[in-house]
């Protein structure tokens, strides 16, 4: 019997599942279809560098695998019909599936702040990041940039932009007592000191109440700026939020221990749309993708489902421009040049293996 596996999204999780399936002993007549808005995989963890103007877009693209068992279809998913086993697209006929992998990623969460979705820039998708690059690099000399959110994305964008445009006045507005909230104290101090030495202003306990064109309201006080970039939180794709299944507070889907929907055992959710005990990351999406591929292969071969170990993550690496960085590996905090070199190495390995 022919089996059709439909993968929605060629990000870190979706692509890892495709790679694992194509490398394994797939039953004959198994066909994979990938639907994505882009004709290539985008290195989303590095979009901050494209936005800042320190990396070209070509460097952040990786070709999808070429294999007779894989069909890549460009398109935009508009809805998923779990009862009919159908996926609807913006243009084109609905696509039926035997197995579905939802890997649609995340979008910005604006926390109900009026004007935030209209008057701020984003680095969530490649087209949004292109627009952000244009906006930031067209700012007049000595202009003002506001970055809302002091997590990993905001910190990496601010530091990279500082290297790209030494003239700009850059301010990070963060809700917490300090930037990089979940990280160790020593690391937060190091990064804060780097920003202090490199003239990036940090505003803590910020409360952005409204955004208007070139005006940011912090605690209702207007601040005039040239451009605003929003890196203050994410939520699951709206396609996933519309599904009639159990979700967590971030709109992410509750899953069985084998990563499928409890009532729909042929539908898997990977990456930022899945409710997992870790913060969303590319590393988590790949680790989960490995397990989903294993489960799927057992299903396709009619074998019992494997016992899956708890997902363990290796750690986090972040950059402060091209020469400095920070990271956490187990209980070890890494600061300075070593984590930056490690991060470059990890990225090179990833691209090399995909290519």
TrEMBL record:
Domain FAD/NAD(P)-binding: 4-288
Presence of keyword Flavoprotein: yes
Needed cofactors: FAD
Superkingdom to which the source organism belongs: Bacteria
Pfam families in the record: Pyr_redox_2 (PF07992)
Keyword list, A-Z: FAD, Flavoprotein, Oxidoreductase
The keyword Flavoprotein is assigned to this record: yes
Family designation: Belongs to the NADH dehydrogenase family.
Protein's name in the database: NADH dehydrogenase
Organism of this sequence: Caldalkalibacillus uzonensis
């Amino acid at each position: 019997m022919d089996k059709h596996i439909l993968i929605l999204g060629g990000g870190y999780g979706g692509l890892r599942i495709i790679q694992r399936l194509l490398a394994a002993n797939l039953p004959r007549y198994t066909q994979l279809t990938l639907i994505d808005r882009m004709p290539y995989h985008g290195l989303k963890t590095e979009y901050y560098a494209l936005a800042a103007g320190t990396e070209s877009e070509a460097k952040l693209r990786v070709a999808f695998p070429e294999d007779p068992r894989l069909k890549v279809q460009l398109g935009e998913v508009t809805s998923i019909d779990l009862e009919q086993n159908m996926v609807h697209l913006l243009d084109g006929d609905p696509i039926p599936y035997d197995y579905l992998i939802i890997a649609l990623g995340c979008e910005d969460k604006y926390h109900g702040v009026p004007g935030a979705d209209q008057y701020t820039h984003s680095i969530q998708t490649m087209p949004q990041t292109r627009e952000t690059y244009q906006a930031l690099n067209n700012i007049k000399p000595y202009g003002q940039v506001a970055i809302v959110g002091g997590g990993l994305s905001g910190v990496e964008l601010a530091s990279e932009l500082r290297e790209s445009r030494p003239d700009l006045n850059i301010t990070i507005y963060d809700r917490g007592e300090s930037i990089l909230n979940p990280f160790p104290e020593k690391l937060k101090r190091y990064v804060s000191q780097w920003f202090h030495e490199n003239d990036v202003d940090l505003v803590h306990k910020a409360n952005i109440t409204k955004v208007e064109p070139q005006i940011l309201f912090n605690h209702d006080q207007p601040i005039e700026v040239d451009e605003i970039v929003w890196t203050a939180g994410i939520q699951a794709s709206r396609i996933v939020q519309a599904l009639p299944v159990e979700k967590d507070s971030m709109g992410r889907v509750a899953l069985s221990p084998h990563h499928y929907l409890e009532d729909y055992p042929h539908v898997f959710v990977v990456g930022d749309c899945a409710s997992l005990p870790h913060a969303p990351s590319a590393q988590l999406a790949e680790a989960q993708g490995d397990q989903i591929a294993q489960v799927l292969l057992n299903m396709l071969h009619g074998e019992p489902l494997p016992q899956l170990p708890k997902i363990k993550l290796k750690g986090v690496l972040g950059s402060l421009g091209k020469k400095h960085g920070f990271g956490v590996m187990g209980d070890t905090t890494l600061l300075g040049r070593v984590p930056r070199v490690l991060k470059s190495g990890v990225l090179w390995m990833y691209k090399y293996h995909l290519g």
